[in-house]
Amino acid sequence: MKRLHLILGFLWIIIFLTSCGEKLEKSWEISDFSKPHVFSIKAPKNKKVSTANIYLDGKFTDTIYLSRIPNDSTLKFTNKNLPKDKLMVDFYGGEFKFHLSPSKAKGELRITIEMPYQ
Prior knowledge:
Elements (H helix, E strand, L loop, with lengths): L1 H19 L1 E9 L6 E6 L8 E10 L2 E5 L7 E4 L8 E4 L4 E7 L5 E11 L1
Antiparallel strand pairs: 1-8, 2-7, 3-6, 3-8, 4-5, 4-7
Protein name: Lipoprotein
Organism: Mesonia ostreae
């Protein structure tokens, strides 16, 4: 009987952990780097949000500049140092905006913003 309670408790924890979280996801394809771009995603009302995950994928020449602030070069990437994993940014609700500043880059870039929430 004790073992049954332990198994049921374990199953309840697994079900609870896998059913708690949801996520919003939005993607953009960029091929014109000569003008600024703004990517935004809005957190659901009355939901807990703590991060925004940014995924970058593509092939391009030169350098691209990304930031939370318009026309800023906080994050500089070339095709060689593009992160293979996600960029995690602290975010606690409202509208999340991410900016791509103009550059001389040529090619294509896919930006995906994922916002987990509970």
